[in-house]
Amino acid sequence: MSFFNLRTCTLMQQYIAHEHSYHQLVLATSGVTELQIEGRGERITRERGCLIPSTYHHEYVGDGANRTLVMDIPLANLGLTSCADEVGRLFERPRFFEVPVALYQLANGLLPQVEQNMALHTEIATLILRAIYLNLHDEVLPASPLQARARSRLDLKRLDNFIDTHLGEAILVDDLASLCALSPGHFHACFREHTGMTPLAYVQQRRLAHARELIETSGQRLGQIATLVGFRDQGSFSRAYRRAFGVAPSTQRRGLDH
Fold first, then answer.
1. Nearest to 52, CA basis, from 41, 66, 63, 64
2. Model pTM?
């Protein structure tokens, strides 16, 4: 019996927003996923992983080409594991962390066993968690001023037009960066400095603003509106809408009908 739910997957080009009752570790061995936890977002790559404590709201969209290792840690099983103390400290708060080369090589080498041998999942999960615990340290990133030339390429009007035209589709940082002739990493940093939010959060903000306009001015069903603004299902849409505006979309529509 495994105390962990360990799996490999490819996170698709679909915006997802939710929270869950278990801790979660996300590591990538290839590709990119844009992930945001309670308003703080980063890119999950082979160099960056993340730890998501239970009940923390998070949102993500993959590039459709990633290979991602996901570990769910049910709290009910935590006391039964041999690394309960380490896990408790790791998940004291949400965090993104640097993935050292040795950890990447370990995770990448274990992926075939994760996929083929469920009986080893507890041992594999314990090994990965302990490796992260030993390597993790508080990262202090020096604040380096971004070049004014790069910032000047952030044409928000052009970006807004692109986002609004593609609301029903997956919108990746790579797409937005290409419009500004910047690398995705540089664009992400410039965008956060310029707007105070991540590109993923900005796209979500425009999706939900458009959804509110449709709720107020059209008779379309909520499920249709959710699809039009790029949500996979009405449940994800409703949760994100409630967090943004403090009211469920169905409640807002009923209020307009009275």
1. 41
2. 0.69
